[in-house]
Specification:
It is a single chain. By secondary structure, the protein is α/β, with parallel strands linked by helices. It folds into two domains: 157 residues, Rossmann fold, CATH 3.40.50; 42 residues. Strands 3-2-1-4-5-7-6 form a seven-stranded mixed beta sheet, sandwiched between helices. Helix 4 links the parallel strand 4 and strand 5. The relative contact order is 0.11. The protein binds S-adenosylmethionine. S-adenosylmethionine binds next to strand 2, strand 4 and helix 4. The site of S-adenosylmethionine has 17 residues, from strand 2, strand 4 and helix 4.
């Protein structure tokens, strides 16, 4: 059974798409897609030997070796034209690494669907998409334990993003789900805490103070 985060990623995959899961580790997502017959082919890409072995183990355990190919490769280099990949998933990594993988693999695309789940630097990922002829089609924010995970689904297209869009996520900002509001409430109280510490230290003139104050105002103005 998948974690809520990976289950949400899986649900966003286009039905019957040929999927590449880049940085797959255990290949749980690929296995679930095949076992649920949501997909008939998945490619698993891994840059590291240990995780690749985890993936191969899962695939063999579920008897999916005919439908799931596992390759040792850096990023989108795992994808070959004959795979006819339609959906690329990159989940559970930092946003800057996702951006790097997408930039390095630009000759491989465009793909019908990108499903990205950056653990950090979500704004950088959104900016990359808008600068590289993708538009954000769907977004989700999922709570799992103490963590909240953002999932961004992009499709080929043009999109101008405002600062609020790339900071908060255009679809997330529209929907303002309880999990989204909880995230920004927390960000807001963290910022307020640091601000009051800086005030006590009489550092209200510092660049840090000014920037945090701006961030706090922006959150209040756009989200709440
Ligand atoms: N995608 C799975 C998930 O969301 O649960 C696993 C995430 S795991 C934290 C990140 C995986 O990405 C690791 O197994 C790591 O080896 C792999 N990875 C990191 N950089 C990579 C790259 N450039 N190309 C392929 N895989 C990469």
């Amino acid at each position: 059974k998948l974690s809520p985060r990976l289950a949400a990623v899986k649900d966003l995959v286009n039905d019957q798409a040929r999927v590449a899961d880049i940085g797959s580790d255990h290949a749980y997502l690929a296995a679930a897609l095949l076992l649920e017959k949501k997909s008939e082919f998945a490619l698993v890409g891994e840059v590291a030997q240990g995780p690749l072995e985890n993936a191969i183990h899962t695939v063999a355990h579920y008897g999916l070796s005919d439908q799931v190919t596992c390759r040792l490769a850096d990023g989108l280099a795992a994808i070959e034209p004959a795979d006819r990949i339609e959906t690329v998933v990159i989940a559970g990594m930092g946003g800057l690494l996702i951006e790097k993988i997408l930039t390095a693999g630009q000759d491989k695309g465009p793909f019908n669907q990108l499903i990205l789940q950056p653990n950090t630097d979500q704004a950088a990922v959104r900016l990359w998409l808008s600068k590289n002829s993708y538009r954000i089609d769907q977004e989700e924010i999922v709570q799992e334990g103490h963590h909240r995970y953002e999932i961004i689904v992009a499709v080929p297209g043009q999109q101008e993003l405002t600062r609020a869009d790339w900071t908060f996520g255009p679809k997330l900002l529209q929907a303002k789900s309880p999990v989204f509001l909880a995230k920004w409430k927390q960000e807001r109280s963290r910022a307020a805490e640091v601000l009051s510490r800086l005030e006590n230290a009489q550092q209200t003139g510092s660049e840090k103070y000014v920037n945090l104050q701006k961030k706090l105002n922006f959150i209040n103005q756009e989200v709440f």
